Amino acid sequence: MDTHVQALPDERGTRIILCSGEFDTASAPQLRSALEAARADRVRRTVVDLSLVTFADSAFISVLLHAHHRQRLVLALPPPSPVRRILSLLGLDGVLHLAPDLGTAAAPDP
Protein backbone atom coordinates (compact mmCIF):
# COMPACT_ATOMS: atom_id res chain seq x y z
CA MET A 1 0.00 0.00 0.00
CA ASP A 2 1.22 3.47 -0.85
CA THR A 3 2.00 5.91 1.93
CA HIS A 4 0.26 9.28 1.82
CA VAL A 5 0.54 12.37 3.99
CA GLN A 6 -1.68 15.33 3.18
CA ALA A 7 -1.97 18.56 5.14
CA LEU A 8 -5.32 20.30 4.81
CA PRO A 9 -5.71 24.09 4.92
CA ASP A 10 -5.72 25.48 8.47
CA GLU A 11 -9.08 26.09 10.05
CA ARG A 12 -9.54 28.10 13.26
CA GLY A 13 -5.88 27.60 14.22
CA THR A 14 -5.93 23.85 13.60
CA ARG A 15 -4.04 21.98 10.93
CA ILE A 16 -5.27 18.53 9.97
CA ILE A 17 -2.81 16.05 8.55
CA LEU A 18 -4.25 12.94 6.90
CA CYS A 19 -2.09 9.81 6.81
CA SER A 20 -2.67 6.48 5.12
CA GLY A 21 -0.68 3.38 4.33
CA GLU A 22 2.36 1.79 5.93
CA PHE A 23 4.90 3.92 7.79
CA ASP A 24 8.45 2.81 8.42
CA THR A 25 11.92 4.33 8.47
CA ALA A 26 11.67 5.25 4.78
CA SER A 27 8.21 6.86 4.90
CA ALA A 28 8.08 8.38 8.42
CA PRO A 29 9.98 11.50 7.24
CA GLN A 30 6.89 12.49 5.21
CA LEU A 31 4.94 12.87 8.43
CA ARG A 32 7.87 14.55 10.18
CA SER A 33 7.99 17.21 7.44
CA ALA A 34 4.25 17.89 7.69
CA LEU A 35 4.45 18.18 11.50
CA GLU A 36 7.49 20.47 11.34
CA ALA A 37 5.69 22.70 8.81
CA ALA A 38 2.69 22.98 11.17
CA ARG A 39 5.01 23.92 14.03
CA ALA A 40 6.86 26.47 11.89
CA ASP A 41 3.52 27.99 10.85
CA ARG A 42 2.65 28.31 14.56
CA VAL A 43 -0.76 26.65 14.35
CA ARG A 44 -2.40 26.29 17.77
CA ARG A 45 -3.16 22.59 17.33
CA THR A 46 -2.18 19.84 14.94
CA VAL A 47 -4.56 16.94 14.38
CA VAL A 48 -3.17 13.83 12.71
CA ASP A 49 -5.71 11.37 11.33
CA LEU A 50 -4.14 7.91 11.57
CA SER A 51 -7.32 5.92 10.94
CA LEU A 52 -6.04 4.67 7.57
CA VAL A 53 -2.52 3.78 8.72
CA THR A 54 -2.12 0.01 8.45
CA PHE A 55 1.43 -0.35 9.78
CA ALA A 56 3.72 1.78 11.93
CA ASP A 57 7.25 1.00 13.07
CA SER A 58 9.40 2.60 15.76
CA ALA A 59 10.52 5.42 13.44
CA PHE A 60 6.90 6.48 12.99
CA ILE A 61 6.19 6.30 16.74
CA SER A 62 9.34 8.36 17.35
CA VAL A 63 8.07 11.08 14.98
CA LEU A 64 4.78 11.24 16.90
CA LEU A 65 6.51 11.42 20.29
CA HIS A 66 8.90 14.13 19.12
CA ALA A 67 6.00 16.21 17.79
CA HIS A 68 4.01 15.64 20.99
CA HIS A 69 6.80 17.31 22.97
CA ARG A 70 7.07 20.28 20.60
CA GLN A 71 3.48 21.16 19.69
CA ARG A 72 -0.14 20.59 20.68
CA LEU A 73 -0.87 17.29 18.96
CA VAL A 74 -4.08 15.26 18.81
CA LEU A 75 -4.22 11.86 17.09
CA ALA A 76 -7.44 10.60 15.53
CA LEU A 77 -7.43 6.83 16.01
CA PRO A 78 -10.45 4.53 16.11
CA PRO A 79 -10.22 1.91 18.90
CA PRO A 80 -9.69 -1.12 16.62
CA SER A 81 -6.81 0.57 14.78
CA PRO A 82 -3.42 -1.19 14.46
CA VAL A 83 -1.63 2.01 15.52
CA ARG A 84 -3.81 2.39 18.62
CA ARG A 85 -2.93 -1.18 19.56
CA ILE A 86 0.80 -0.46 19.21
CA LEU A 87 0.49 2.72 21.29
CA SER A 88 -1.41 0.79 23.94
CA LEU A 89 1.20 -1.98 24.06
CA LEU A 90 3.90 0.65 24.53
CA GLY A 91 1.92 2.47 27.22
CA LEU A 92 1.72 5.59 25.07
CA ASP A 93 -2.07 5.70 24.88
CA GLY A 94 -1.97 7.45 28.25
CA VAL A 95 0.75 9.89 27.13
CA LEU A 96 -0.41 11.01 23.70
CA HIS A 97 -3.71 12.82 23.16
CA LEU A 98 -5.98 10.34 21.35
CA ALA A 99 -9.46 10.86 19.92
CA PRO A 100 -11.73 8.12 18.51
CA ASP A 101 -12.27 9.88 15.19
CA LEU A 102 -11.30 12.92 13.14
CA GLY A 103 -14.46 14.86 14.00
CA THR A 104 -13.80 14.58 17.71
CA ALA A 105 -10.11 15.36 17.32
CA ALA A 106 -10.74 18.45 15.19
CA ALA A 107 -13.68 19.82 17.19
CA PRO A 108 -13.07 23.36 18.45
CA ASP A 109 -12.01 23.71 22.06
CA PRO A 110 -14.91 24.51 24.40
From TrEMBL:
One of its GO terms (molecular function) is anti-sigma factor antagonist activity. It holds the Pfam family STAS_2. Residues 13-109 form the STAS domain. Coiled coil: none annotated. This is Anti-sigma factor antagonist. SUPFAM superfamilies: SpoIIaa-like.
